[in-house]
Amino acid sequence: MIEVKNLTKRYGNHIAVNDLSFKVETGQIYGFLGPNGAGKSTTMNIITGYLAATDGTVTIDGKNIQTDPEAAKAKIGYLPELPPLYSEMTVREYLDFVAELKKVPKSERAAQVEEVMRETHIDEMSKRLIRNLSKGYKQRVGMAQAILGNPDVLIFDEPTVGLDPKQIMEVRDLIRKLGEKHTVILSSHILSEVSAVCDHIMIISKGKLVADGSPEELQRMIGSKAEIELTVLGDASKAVPVIKKAEGVEEVIDEGSDEQGNGRIRIVSAPEIDAREAVSLALAENRIAVMGMERKEKSLEDIFLELTGDGESEPEARGGDSADHAGNGKTEEEK
Fold it and tell me: For residue 311, is pLDDT > 50?
């Protein structure tokens, strides 16, 4: 559906996106994850035709975003981080305006506007001025304008930023529902956001793609070792040599005692091996009591930190106005 090849964006001496390549297949929810300033928003703006790339190409369903922008943009609905709203319009007036910009046939506009308002649960707000809406409802209006025209791909850049917990849950549920009919790309630096709704994750750091796969695939890629945290009754010194002989165990680390004086031990094995049964049997045979045992797997947070280092990068440049976002506006450089 979307193919990005060797995408690069430079601002003077700063490289915001660095030779980035990936594919987005039809019918999945993709998470585009990275620390602030990693290049996520710049990449989204290039894919949607809002920014011009320095080098590289983006094609949407075979249509090049630079050489055939009108056909390519017709395939995409875009919600930028700052929703492209006009505060002096009512919700319905604004959506009618966006439908016209998107060249929705006049005979279909009213029905499409009604449908997207129902889908995003803003139909009761249709006559309200946008300036009087809550942050959550403004975000829904932004999503409604992205859905207008029934594009194949929906791109949401930080869709829950600034929302309260209840609003975040509502937007996540809406994204899952939209994923049943559209291919969705969700850009975020919030790990829980991506893990909650996405089928496929791409991690970007300093303008480069550092990981690409399902959450399970990323865990297998990074999780070169499996670990068990063990607590035994009394001193750990007797347990350590016993554990070392257990099947599947590669390394045993004595981590001292807890507040109750019980021994704390970390056990390392290959990722495909669960050594808990072998360790338990070995300790039982030697009459060493187990107070607690837990197999630790790397979380998405662990994977993210390991792949992106300290997460430091320069801030991304941003810019443009609402009119360019709302319709298929002119490409311009970010400020």
Answer: no
Pick the CATH number of 2-220+309-326 from 3.30.1360.200, 3.20.20.100, 3.30.750.200, 3.40.50.300: 3.40.50.300
d(CA 279, CA 331): 62
The residue among 239 and 235 whose pLDDT is bigger is 239
pLDDT at position 138 is 93
What separation in angstroms does the CA of 187 have from each of 42, 44, 144, 156?
A: 11, 8, 17, 6
Domain with CATH 3.40.50.300 in the chain: 2-220+309-326
Token pair for 202 = 């791409």
pLDDT of residue 238: 93
What global pTM score does this model have? 0.70
Topology of the domain comprising 224-297 = Alpha-Beta Plaits (3.30.70)
At 297 the pLDDT is: 66
- Judging by DSSP bridges, how do beta strands 29-33 and 183-188 pair with one another? parallel
Structure tokens at 95: 């959506």
